[in-house]
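new request in #modeling-help
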Amino acid sequence: MKTLAIMRRDLLKLMRNPLTLLSTVLMPIIYLVVIGNSFQGQLRHLPVAVVAQDHGIYARRVVEQLLALQAGPKTVTLSFVSDPGTAIAGVRNGEYKGAVIIPPNFSHSVAEGRIAEIGLFTDNVDTVSSSTLESVLSDAAASIKVDFVTAREPKLNEIVMRPSWLFTYVDYDRSLIPGVIVMAIFMGSLMAGVFNWVMDKFMGVTECYLVTPLSRWNIAAGILGSGVTITSAVAVFVLFLGLLITRGTIEGGFPALMTLIGIIVITSTGLLAMTFAILGRAGHPRLVGTFAGFLNVILFFPSGAIYPVESFPPWLRSFAAYNPETHAVNAIKQILFKGADFAAVMHDLAFLLVFMGITLTLASMSFKRTL
Amino acid sequence: MMEPDSAAILTEDLTKRFGNFTAVDSVNFEVRRGEVFGMLGPNGAGKTTLVRMLTTLLPPTSGRATVAGEDIGRHARKVRERIGVIPQALTSDLDLTGWENVDIYGCFYGVPRSERHKRAHRLLEMVRLSDRANDLVATYSGGMRRRLEIARGLIHSPRVLFLDEPTIGLDPQSRRAVWDLLLELHNESEITVSLTTHYMDEAEQLCDRIAIVDHGKIIALDTPAGLKKLVNGSDRVEVQVDGNSEQVAASLRTQTYVSEVTIDGDKLIIATDDGAHVIPRLIESVESAGSRVTSLNVHQLSLEDVFIRFTGRTLRDEAAKKVSFLVGAGMPQQR
Ligand SMILES: Nc1ncnc2c1ncn2[C@@H]1O[C@H](COP(=O)(O)OP(=O)(O)O)[C@@H](O)[C@H]1O
Ligand SMILES: [Mg+2]
């Protein structure tokens, strides 16, 4: 009853602060929308200048390929420029991300079987767009050559990569959902947990609890109970909102949803206990705010939520291996998109459970029932 | 001395040190059951620290105390069940209604539901908040919050009620309302009340006995009347003279009807037993000392005179506390 009374107090207080609750929902969703739209999986609309100094058949094919890139995947937005100097100057001053220059004798060289070159100047300070341009444009050029080659001497044992998907297609926005859920858990556990505790302490409110017969256990269980309830509710809400925004579904249906909720509850408890262990003794809510922003960044970005963990440098990869958010993101990803069964997430779940055990122990060790 | 278990509060050399600063210094006193006991002292005297020890919030550095018959160290939980505490800060939850504040607090003491509700109704009635009970506390004034907190502190029918500066920051009307409440409580129940304050009038109005606390020590303890007897003369005559006040004071001190003269700036404060009747003789004495009275004022000895007499006039600034260089006020050294 005493523990329930603490939960009742916390829940009532949180429910009367819809703005706080809303911000724990909104912030991760805004991340989803902003990250989803700012660094898309594939780059688009890169402005490219084209200078065609040759009008032969092969030159026209190259231009067709470029136009196809513009029309299809929309990787580039072309501007036809008459003189190479202007084009290169445009790249220099940032008007274009690249310039394609087809030299005067291009078609001729191709027809004669000599090495034909197209000039490509990229803004290589912007490494991401420059490497993308290099790869899509050399693919385009290669396709012309292949065409040319097949006409004369067919290559029979050519290997063609044809991508095939093992799972339902997941677009970039949707692939961010697991990370967004985990961020909502982080924000929620902070708002509903240690922030309230430190605020109460700062205002002197804890004093009127500590003079009652409430035990350490009552207080800790009450705070944890209400924190996990609110946080999990927020995370599930974010899950559905995320699916709604990206028009997705849960791959494994109801059992998968239950497993997801389980993962969410375990992660909430672990993160709640972790923030208590770290910040429970802080005396000013400002300190919680500052530290929380920092924790959010160091846990969220290396979690594989937006970029695959495998591509990290080794030091970051080993940090990611011990990052609870990595395991939470991965477990949610498996269940949400692949409908994977329990076995596939065993390792992540085991990690999260151990993490929860350790942080609960640490939090209860640091939790004092005195002023 | 009474048996220990008949005392509501009993302390033995109770001491609290913060580092090498002694906030409460070997305090001994006894509060009888049913008594309203006041601790009166300037800011920083150690009142809050003393109350925090008695209410099990801070462990004493040395010494012992029993509250409601139980040792505060060994049986803290039993003590907590038997006491009600209204801390100095306003601690009611702004996001909850008055009713919820009281009801939830009752749960913390394990008061069963029906009893809790019955008492909550009665207490809210008593503190005159019944018609606002379902409003959020955020809409209450400071005085209303304090009354609510008194109701909340009584939800489990404690044997001893601690109030730390209950009227600090309240307007005069709200202060009176709180006083009336405490007087009503005193008259209608057996409860023991321990109250700290730095307002003389409050202590005088409410308390059966008063301990004057300064620098962590009890420097006087008696009934308000008893305390007044500790100083000479039942009246105070304040006179302003236009001559050499030192000289006038010296000549007044030789008079038999004058028990004490203190000089306060350009005023002379004369302690005497029969203020109104000595005035003509006083004026005569001043004039015969070659001076003239320019203003004169007689009043009965107040607790304030006693208080100032015991604690002196120096201003009390808080002892310097350490503040972390890295996080400012973010990480306190224990409050
Ligand atoms: N946690 C603490 N650490 C260091 N000094 C403290 C602490 N708490 C109180 N003090 C000091 O002890 C003295 C008494 O404080 P307090 O009991 O709050 O006085 P009062 O309630 O009579 O105004 C003050 O000088 C205060 O600065
Ligand atoms: Mg105080």
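bot summary: Confidence is low (pLDDT under 50) at residues 146-164 of chain A.
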